[in-house]
Structures are given as C-alpha cells and as structure tokens.
Design brief:
CATH topology of the largest domain: Rossmann fold
Shape: globular
CATH superfamily of the largest domain: Glycogen Phosphorylase B
CATH class of the largest domain: Alpha Beta
Number of helices: 14
Number of strands: 10
Structural class: alpha/beta
Number of domains: 2
Radius of gyration: 21 Å
Helix content: 40-55%
Strand content: 5-15%
CATH architecture of the largest domain: 3-Layer(aba) Sandwich
Amino acid sequence: MAELAMRGEVEAAGFPFIGWRRAPTGIDADPADFSDLADWLRKTMFAPARAYAADTLDEIRRVPTDAVLSIDLLVGCALAAEAAALPHAVLSPHVSIRPLPGIPTAASGLAPPRNAEEQAAVEAAKTAIVSAMEQGRPVLNAARRAFGLPPVATAFAHFEKAERVLLAISRTFDFDTEALPANYRYIGPLLDEPGWSRGALTAWPEARRPRILVAGSTGAQNQTDLLRRIACALGTVDAETVVTTGHNVVAEDLAAPATIRVVGAASHDALMAEADLVVCQGGHGTVSRALLHGVPLLVIPLARDQADNAARIAQRGAGLRLPAGALETEIATAARRLLAEPNFRAAARVLGAAVRADLDAAGLVREIEAMTASHRASDRGGDRRWA
C-alpha cells in the first residue's frame, strides 16, 4: 500500500497497486517545513494515524494476511496490525527514531559525546525528541480507542510492541549502541534505483577531469537555494560536475554556470561508479549508495535525518560536513580538499565494504520470513496465508 506517486514502482515490481483512501498523500503526508519537530511529527505520524489504520484494516480484511510490514512513521499501520492480532515489523530507512542507549537521538545531528558539554547537548536533544513525540500521544490514544485498543504510556510504543524493528542502515555506518533492544535488527540499506531514473543520464564526458555528482533530494525540502549555492561554488572547481535536481527543483532556477550540467534525473549508480566526489543534502539512500561505490561525500544537511547521516560520515572520515547556510567559498574549499586528500576515499571504501556485506545478506527478506514462519508454526490449522 502506498500513495499514488508510487504506483509505477509498485507495478514494475510485479505487485498490484493499492492506494490510500482516507490517509493523506503528497505534501499533506510529508510536509516540507521541518522547523517545528513536534508539529511535523503531529502532522506526519499522529494526526493521520486513525486514517492509516482504517485503510490498512480494510486491506487486511480484503486479503488474508499473515503479517504487516510498515514504515516507522506510519504508526497507524502498526495500530491496524495490533487490532487485527497480526505480527508486525517496523521498517526504519534511517537511524532509529526511538532513542537507543549510547547513540545521539535522531534529528539531532550530534556525534557521541567526548566531554561534559557535548554530553549535555546529547541529553538535551533526547529530551527534545521525546517531548516532541509525547505531544502526539493523546491523539494516538484517541485513535487506539477508536479501534478498541487500550491507551499506551509512551509515543514510542509501536517500536516496543513490534516483533521486529528493522533498521535499514549498515551497523558499521551507525554509531555503537550500549544495548540494542531485543527486537531490533540492522538489515542494511535498501538501494534499488527508482524507475524514473532508468534510461536517464548514465555516462560522464570523455575528458578525464575529477568528477563531481551533486545529488539533490527527491523530496520537497525547500532546497533550491542550497543547490544554487552548490552549483555556483562548484563552477569554480576544476571538475566535471553533474547536478541532479529531482522533481521539486526547476533547473533554470539554479542559474548554474555554463560549465555545470544540470539534469532532472540520472542513474546515480552509473555516475557514482566513476565519480570522485558526491555532494548531497545527506539523505540516507544517497549517502549509502555513494559509500557502496567508495566515493567520499560533502554533506550539507537541511532537515530530517540528514544531519544524523552527516555526523556519521564526518565521524568515520568518509567526507566532510557543512552547515545549511555554508557560503559558496566554503563549499568550493571543502570540495577541493575532498578531491585532493586520498584518506577520505579510503574511509569511504571501508564503509562501502560493510554496506555491500549487508546488501548481500538480504536481511529484510530473512527477517520477514523468520517472523512469518514462526507464526505459521504456532498457528497451524488456521486459514490465513501470507499476502
């Protein structure tokens, strides 16, 4: 089940497309304004929980179902699985939203603390995300009551109740936790290229200069100004540069120098295979794909989990991080350094090997099969089948 924009991807994978009927879609489901974390979580996770639950239950009743797998932000899907007494797995395609011991919390952009001041910052960030989540709990409990479920004592309850919480990142990429909850699993990133990028730009010019790929986010994050500064900065760097804007930025709005090639989409796999540097906002898919190809990164995060990914890249030595308001001169200087110093590529290759090992292990399929097999074994004689 997904929103209409995913129809092509779903059908290309060989599945019938089922869209949301009551639940929000588009910008209503994924607001671009991330300035108020509590408000963003309310709009994304909690206010629509009842609608997502109703749509999910409709499908569970229509097709015999053995298990539910849902994105961590769609708490309503977890609610539906609980109401239907089905095993449920939560998929997190980013660092854990639920705070984990020893790891700075999501959306903080912090690295593990080295002193008392940094420890205080980590604790403050944890307090902030817990507070932001808890502001949505009354709405969540109202949705639970509507489906005959008891209230929960924490807004993180669906992570605790899930049989599996599948972190779609590499364990080597993440910071070390003091104690991973028993239902958590690292399964590595999910890196299939989207269908709309196939057949797009796949090759660099023949002239062999350093090659820089600027990968703009496909989501709406008010990133036009950032991409404009990046394009102008890299116009001063002696390199072949390609900028992919995604769906939410108009190429002409970047006013890019004539030496920069700007396209709406391209095959990032093909271009990264021969790239010397990737510049991006820090989306986990882009970061993981660059590492898979052993390419160092310049990460300039705007929102969501981007600062968290940037912190991990910088901590591992696989690239550099700049603030969202970085000047063109700062961007150009960082790019030149990343192209000149081989230690960044060496670190990216080490992380990339870990990403490759996780991909080869097919953790998502393994964990879902194990979860459903366990319930089949304990429920023999029932008439349900895995849908």
